[in-house]
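Posting this for the archive.
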Amino acid sequence: MTDCNPAHPKPVKKKKKLKVKKSKLQKSKENPRSGFWERKANEQWRKMIKLDGRCAINKNCAGGLEAHHLITRANKPMKHELMNGIALCSKHHKWDRELSAHTGPVAFSEWLRINKPHQYEFALKNRFYTGEKANYQERYENIKQLLEDK
């Protein structure tokens, strides 16, 4: 004899929702503070800094143009500020013992104070700033828009 008790119906199995697995890349694109957006913001920042196409110290310098951070790029809130960057040839960026940002920082600082006083003041004022966490996606989009407007 079969048991057909209507008071205790058989349990119905619930359908499982299929979870769509996201790739690491997709997860990175959804996080505005990810390395994905930081790299894209870095690229746009460099393009913007080198837009003039000439070394800030000597317009006639030959060699590759490089974007230099006045405030170290380890300072994340200041990393993509346009006032924090200056275009230098490789000689004036790293190799000239007399006047280069890395090898002759005292002379470079004095040159900056005289020739680019706004940037010099910006660097002095903000060198210890540790403000809000960086939204790299927003920074990327802002700099990209500035480039498109030029």
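The chain has one domain: 39-144. The mean pLDDT is 89.
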